Each structure stands twice: as C-alpha cells, then as structure tokens.
Amino acid sequence: MNIALLSEVTTDVTTPQLSAGYSMLAGRYKLGNILGVGGMGVVYRGVDTMLQTFGAASHFIAVKMTSTALADHVHADKLLFTEYELGSCLKHPNLVAIRHFDVCRQQQKAFLVMDWIEGLQLEELLYRQRIPAVVALKLARQLVNGVRYCHEQGVVHGDIKPTNIIISPDNHLTLFDFGISRWLSRPAANHREVIRACSCRYAAPELFDVHIPSIATDVFSVCCVIYRLFSGEHPFKDTTDEAAARNDVITPVFHRRHALDKALQQGLMWSHHKRSCNLDWLHKVLSGLTENDFKNNWFI
C-alpha cells in the first residue's frame, strides 16, 4: 500500500529566521516573528543567544508572553507562571518542553521559554489535504499517548484542538499550549474564563453549563480531533461556536461498525451522562489496528 507521508507537504518548514526588528528579553533571548496569537498569549520564535554562543544545536526557541488583552490584568504574570509550573512538570515526547520562566525587568514582561518545534499546525495540514489513514493512525496514537500521560500526572489540558498541535516533517506530533490547563487536585479557575479562551468547536458541551475542565472534557476533544484526522471533517460538521454553545449541533456520521467507530461514538456523546469512552479504551483500540484495517475508509 503506497502511503504518502506528511513530509511531502511540509517542505516549506524551515528553521526560524528572525526579523530585523527583533527585541531582546533578559539580555539573552532574541525575539523574532510572531508564531501565533491566542486568547491568552502571544508566541514568538527566537534564539537563546547564550546557547548559541556555546554552539548548542538546540538554540532556537519559542517564547510566550501574555496577550495585549491580558497585559493589564492584575494576575497576568501569575497566569503565565502557573502555565510554567504545570507544563514544566510534564516530560513526554508528545508534549512541548517548557524550559524556563523569567521576567524581563527592562520591559516589565513575564515570559515562558519553550522548545522550538519544527513543523506545521495540524489545522493547516488538515486544510491542505486528506491525511492518509495509516499516517492518521500514527498521529492519533501519539495524541492519545500524550494526553493519557497528562492525566496520569493529574493534569487536564483543557484546550485540545488542531491549532494546538504541531506535526513535524517525519510525522511526530507535539501538543502544546497549557494556558488553561489545571491540576485535578487543585481548585479550578472560573470555567467561564476558560470557555472564552478555548475553542468552542472542540470543547465538550458541558463546559457551557456549570462544569469545569476534566478528564472527560479532554476525552471529548481528543475524539473530535481523531474523527477529523480519519474523516477530514469535524464530527459536528458545520456547527459554529455559537451553535455549539446553544447545543444546536449535527450528529456525527459513522458508516462502518468497527471498534474505533464505537469508541469515538461513545467519546462524542453530546450528553456527558451518556459518554463512556476513556483514553485507555482508545489506546487499546488504536494499538490493535494495522495497515490492513485501512483498505476501506470508515468515515464519510
């Protein structure tokens, strides 16, 4: 079976080139272009000049600071430190490595330093082409492994979606952005603040009611991403953020009776009372699949 690898569509991925108008943080971290802007933060590509001076191969970095919307918030720096405190405790090949937290005294800016990840957002790859099923299987396994590890460490990610996932040219998956993640053992932040920061289309519906991010809400988001990996479509199709918030959704379509279909159906139940899928089940199902299972597509 001839499977096209994602590396064939990521030929434009290069090491970061810094713009001429860079700025320096804490006398060490050289900032370049903006990589992404979210509800709570801005991420820049950059260089750790100290590591560069000593010839380190991994001197390219990503630097996150709070967004303009949160810049004047009294707890803005604390939010960023909480992300560092939580994310730096997680050591897994499918999770971004958070290296350092610091405050630039000159600019009065708190920031996080993370590993630079070569690749493209999963959202962009899904937009470009239908991902081959065998490659989708490899990516789905990595996503489940990374999120399972988070849960084993007592952490809920809270914002799992294709724009928070990077795929490298050799099809390695990295999940990032722990901006609204939480420890299961600690009181949760105001869930309405969380909803404003996360993507409604990948957020579990109970988050719009009175619930806080949990293992079950992460499972829902993981199932949304996996469904889209294999089908090329969001499970709730053209449902908008506004429609999701008012529970006006389209039921996902499955055409074959298969173990993965069954697991995803359970994980995508709109009512959390009926949702019984867990990541151990998904891991077992995905681990049992082989190339021979992909002779025909399961989905639309």
The topology string of helices and strands comes to EEEHEHEEEHHEEEEHHHHH
Strand content: 15-25%
- Judged by helices, strands and strand pairing, the structural class is alpha+beta
Report helical residue fraction. 25-40%
Distance between the termini: 21 Å
CATH topology of the largest domain: Transferase(Phosphotransferase), domain 1
Largest sheet at a glance?
6 strands, antiparallel
The level-1 CATH class of the largest domain: Mainly Alpha
CATH architecture of the largest domain: Orthogonal Bundle
Number of strands: 11
Unreliable residue stretches = 1-21
- Domain count: the total is 2
Shape type: globular
CATH superfamily of the largest domain: Transferase(Phosphotransferase) domain 1
Averaging pLDDT over every residue, what do you get? 81
Main sheet: strand order = 1-2-3-4-6-5
- Global Rg: 20 Å
Short description:
The protein has 300 residues and is α+β, with helices and mostly antiparallel strands.
Describe the structure.
By secondary structure, the protein is α+β, with helices and mostly antiparallel strands. The protein has 2 domains: 24-115, 2-Layer Sandwich (Phosphorylase Kinase, domain 1); 120-297, Orthogonal Bundle (Transferase(Phosphotransferase), domain 1). It is 30% helix and 18% strand. It has 9 helices and 11 strands. It has helices at 49-53, 76-87, 122-128, 133-152, 191-197, 215-231, 241-245, 259-267, 279-287, and strands at residues 23-25, 29-37, 41-48, 60-66, 98-104, 109-115, 120-121, 155-156, 165-167, 173-175, 182-183. A 6-stranded antiparallel beta sheet has the order 1-2-3-4-6-5. Helix 4 runs antiparallel to helix 9 (279-287) and helix 8 (259-267) packs antiparallel against helix 9. The longest helix is centred in the middle third of the chain and has 20 residues, at 133-152. It is globular and about 60 Å long. Residues 1-21 have low confidence and may be disordered. This is Serine/threonine protein kinase. Residues 29-286 form the Protein kinase domain.
